[in-house]
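Budget justification note: compute hours in this period were largely spent on complex prediction jobs such as the one shown. Inputs:
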Amino acid sequence: MDEYIKILLFGNLVEIVGGCELTFPYVADTETLIEALYAKYENLRAQTFSIAVNKSIILENTKIENRDEVALLPPFSGG
Amino acid sequence: MMQDQHISQRFHTQLVLPNFGIEAQKQLLQAKVLVIGAGGLGCPCIQYLLAAGIGSIGVCDGDVVVLSNLHRQILFTAADVGKKKAELIKERYLTEDSACQVVAYNSYLDTEQALSIFPLYDIIVDCTDDLATRYLINDASKLLSKPLVFAAIYQYQAQLAVFNTSKSSIQLRDVFEEQSLNPSTTCNEAGVLGAVTGLVGTLQALEVIKYLANLPGQLCNEMLVCDFSSYQFSKMKINNSNKKDKGPKDIEEFSKRDYRQACLSKQLASKQLDQAAFVNLIEKGNTQIVDVRNAGELPQVLPFDAENIPLDVLLKFPEKISSEKTILLFCHSGIRSQIALDFLSDECQINNVFHLKGGILKWNHYD
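Corresponding output:
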């Protein structure tokens, strides 16, 4: 794959996706990426998480470059 | 107050550190720290804070010690089972070391108590284990301008951040909007090693000490995400300039807010309930509790009375489900109950139906 996005999963999202890291075909922005992930992993839709692009948490749809790293961070509550 | 000579001897090994010194130590000795939650995070955090010479620590926890706490809540022993955690810590440090003061608050934090005790402290440490209380602590800290050291755990992973150190610093709502609440997952449900909570509680103590002694390298406008299984650590930057979720705007709005209900309503909207929300609906009454596992499947369910309607039977005979009652579904791990829920909602237009997230497997019998 020449153009891809690296995705890091945390918390219970690891169980849903079946791994803590995956590479995904390149898409241009975070909204498109999340929709593509929902289509592939239906159970992800019921989860809520914050999104970080290249280790920076984003609040709105954000442009992604080839080989960027996108982390999906659900809120943890345990202590 | 300790004499300088005694301070020099007792804290020698931290006093000689670069950027530390007698003035930094005096800051710790005068400091008042409130630790909320005396569990897996709270125990190591309190121990390291007191050892480092913090003058006064408030410990707020309404819980009692149970046997399944002991692998990670290392201030307690089997002899403490059934006793109040906050009180036990106070008693322990009364006899071990009279130089530091421990104040016990033997109750679960609510909005009224937060408003009365937060002003007495310099910094707040969130060592709790549920999201509703975490948002309550965040909002009270924000409104009362108290720095807050936050940490939370999921299995081998942790999140750590410091909020409200200045007017421009971030808060919990900048990282996770409250409407994004997942049903809370406690360590009892998800599982955790004591060594992991020990490391993370110790990191919280470290951030408190860095803040009070004004040491370099404090976490600021970022969240440390740790995976102790692979030893991967990342600092995620957080921008506070574009806040969507602001929380209560003043003390009055904060006082009126029902944090537990807010958390519960999010779960009700998602239709999947954690154990506390499931019990809450059972207690409200007029429920039909349905076990959709096959007859005789283990574990047997003891905490409540349930009617057994296996999934394949339910899909053929949906008339067995009352349209007059609140329907609570569960199975072994939450997969079949989700299928039953989707069927009843989509095909039978029954709306008042919920299921137990993670199934009876995750039901906690011990606490």
